[in-house]
Amino acid sequence: MRRNRVLTVSGLAAAGLVGVVTLAPAGSTAPAKSDGVIAFVSNRGDGAYAVWLMNADGATPRRLNSHSLDPAFAADATRIVYTAFDATDPVGDVFVMNADGTNRVRLTDSPGADNHPAFSPAGPKIAFHSLRSGNGDIWTMNVDGTDLAPLTTDLATDDDPVFSPDGKQIAFSSGRDGTIDVYVMAADGTEVRRLTAGPGSAWPQAWGRPQER
Fold this sequence. Notes:
- The chain is mainly β.
- 0% of the residues lie in helices and 41% in strands.
- The strands form 5 sheets. The chain has a 4-stranded antiparallel β-sheet with strand order 1-4-5-6, with no helix packed on it. A 4-stranded antiparallel β-sheet has the order 7-8-9-10, with no helix packed on it. Strands 11-12-13-14 form a 4-stranded antiparallel β-sheet, with no helix packed on it.
- The protein is globular and about 45 Å long.
- 40% of the residues are buried.
């Protein structure tokens, strides 16, 4: 299912939280500060899609890796989860790296595609889309790649997971009712309900916090 999440503002934490942040130094556990850095995907240079960073004003673009898509920041902006692929793994798997591109770690290794990852803002979990069972479903795992489990098992494709700001719910796209629409479920896969009903296709991109009045 198409999503093309190729531009991610640091601070979204895969959940649509408004604002951009400044990265902490490599290896630092200090919280990010309000300022500006953007992760994006580009095929500039050698033509291979890769994750890049730039300042919020567009300055200082720098390439973090190669053959990669779907960057999403952790809540503290110190890490980025993403999809990587190459000639030996053309379908893609989920990886994580420090926000400066160092310490790249493979989290999944499946013959079916694993992609569209999202960090939970509430704890050490990542949601992602997987074809490992032969059908497109939403799965979760710990941030170290352990404890993999499916959240959805519908025969239709479920894709595009987006956590709520509190991490208690996940919005996703599904064709289970005949058209591709936005659904929401509890973070454990229960309480699934449909939010949109055509006539065109719809899929979630971000989940923001309520505005304070």
